[in-house]
């Protein structure tokens, strides 16, 4: 079974609209961490946001927020007021417990339309 | 400073060559990673070093040989590669902060072409 599932291979969104990128995860660990990354066509992987499993508040970083629903094992990324520069591949990832391994989902390609 | 640097940016090598990829971070991160990424795919973990010791080797062929000379440096030695090894090689480092928030920063990658 996949540990990280991103069900949207691609999305097209109008500029200035909010975007929600879906991510569900599968783990039996009580302690885990969830990450979101952005990868533009240049190839660089950019860390966006982190949510620990014990964090009660949803993580936020500027225009990025993580909608963490623990019971549903869901960690969706919300981008407010999208910009053309947000066009990129977005990856959700998870670390289980104190494992050194970070597991990536297959990614969602986001296209922002002018 | 949240920078991870990688050299070279691009590398073309023949199947009989020996080359090395280098990665450096000065954030004091305890863990460093090598990933391989093919086009339109997620990164695949290759190796993890934790406190300068190899903690994970994801069954990577021996033609890839990692080395961690100190806590800031990570090398990937390449020898007798195959054309299917052509990919983007990403280095990353990570650390937890005092509030148990983790960050993982990636370098810009080395685009490797094996002829």
Give a quick rundown of the structure:
Chain A has 114 residues and is an all-beta fold.
Can you give a write-up of this model?
With 114 residues, chain A is an all-beta fold. Chain A contains no helices and twelve strands. In chain A, β10 and β11 form a beta hairpin. With 115 residues, chain B is an all-beta fold. Chain B is 0% helix and 60% strand. Chain B contains no helices and eleven strands. In chain B, strands 2, 4, 5, 6, 9, 10 and 11 form a seven-stranded mixed sheet that branches. Chain B is globular and about 45 Å long. Chain B starts with a strand and ends with a strand. The relative contact order of chain B is 0.33. The interface between A and B is medium-sized, with 21 and 25 residues.
State the distance separating the first and last CA atoms of chain A: 38 Å
Alpha-beta content class of chain A: mainly beta
Largest sheet of chain B: 7 strands, mixed
Poorly predicted runs of chain B: none
Q: Return the average pLDDT of chain A rounded to an integer.
A: 94
Q: Which segments of chain A are poorly predicted (pLDDT under 50) over 5 or more consecutive residues? A: none
N-to-C SSE series of chain A?
A: EEEEEEEEEEEE
Average pLDDT over all residues of chain B: 93
- Strand proportion of chain A: over 45%
Task: Supply Rg of chain A.
Answer: 14 Å
Task: Give the SSE string of chain B.
Answer: EEEEEEEEEEE
Helix content of chain B: under 10%
DSSP strand count of chain A: 12
| Total DSSP helices of chain A | 0
Radius of gyration of chain B: 14 Å
* Greatest interface by residues involved: A-B, 21 and 25 residues
Shape of chain A: globular
Q: How much helicity do the residues of chain A have?
A: under 10%
Biggest pleated sheet of chain A: 6 strands, mixed
Overall geometry of chain B comes to globular
Q: Total strand count of chain B, please? A: 11
